[in-house]
Amino acid sequence: KSFLLLWESFVVMPYQYNRRFIRQFSTVFSWDDDLVDNDKVIKICYPVRKPFVKGLPFHQRKLSCMLAANKMFNSPHQLYSERQKIIRFYDTHVQRFDLYGRGWDNLKLKCYKGNAPFKSETLQKYRFNFCLENNAFNKGYISEKIFDAFQAGAIPIYKGPPNTSKYIPSNCYIDYNKYGSLEKLDRFIQDFTEADYNRYISNIRKYLTSKMSDQFSSDGFVKIMVPKILEKLGKKKL
Question: Which of 15, 102, 203, 231 has the lowest CB atom count within 10 Å?
Fold first, then answer.
């Protein structure tokens, strides 16, 4: 018996999603809703849920940030170029945006603040965090990015899979696609009041302790994978 865990997105490791490659395995675990058939391909979510940590109060937080390495993949579905678009826009509005991550050192960006070795501590200083997945094409691809923001009380400005709201209530994040331009989105977050912010944070905290978020917990991950592996191996327990 052989098992495959499809972990990385199609953009990063496309060969793993070749049907011929997948057929070699008796059971496949994947986040990809378009592959899942609940027979050979079993649905799993990344075990990335984290408890909420109270950071700085609203009035002490800076406006927005992004934590991302400077990478690029040659795929029509990648969002790395969209991240660069955001960075270029805010490099002329540096008072409202800070960039962290590896690989930006030589670009002489005004908004660049270096690496952020402790994500949560960094994110706790901001009201909003630009969270763009590596791709927004595959249904069900939700990584740690949005949960890192949730944990730190930085409202995610999120661009993820087309069915994000199936997994996370839409009142927990700002939909990046909704505003049509960075100018409009920038104005929207500038106009955000403390009451607006607190409402989103309340929604986030409720979600993180809800059954809906259990699928992103470590326990939820194990409860799906272990029984299925034991079943395929003909065992009742480890």
Answer: 15
Please give the DSSP secondary-structure letter assigned to residue 134. Answer: S
Q: Is 221 in contact with 45 (CB distance < 8 Å)?
A: yes
> Residue 159 has which token pair?
């661009």
Sign of CA dihedral 21, 26, 31, 34: positive
* pLDDT tens-digit series, residues 59-97: 999 999 999 999 877 776 778 889 999 999 999 999 999
- In angstroms, rounded to a whole number, what is the distance separating the alpha carbons of residues 163 and 179? 18
Give the residue-averaged pLDDT of 188-205.
98
pLDDT, tens digit (0-9, with 9 covering 90-100), for 127-168: 999 999 988 888 999 999 999 999 999 999 999 999 999 999
Distance, in Å, from the CA atom of 190 to the CA atom of 14, rounded to the nearest integer, reads 39
Could you tell me the sign of the dihedral formed by the alpha carbons of 117, 118, 123, 124, in that order? Answer: negative
C-beta of residue 79 within 8 angstroms of C-beta of residue 60: no
Domains of the chain: 3-45+217-233 (no CATH), 58-213 (3.40.50.11660)
Tokens of 79: 């969002």
Residue carrying structure tokens 């989103």: 200
**Distances in Å between the alpha carbon of 124 and those of 121, 154, 161, 170?**
5, 6, 25, 21
Tokens coding 146 = 């949005």
pTM higher than 0.90 for the full model? yes
Q: Phi-psi category of 178—alpha, beta or left, where left has phi over 0 and alpha has psi -120 to 50?
A: alpha
Q: Is 215 left (phi over 0), alpha (psi -120 to 50) or beta?
A: alpha
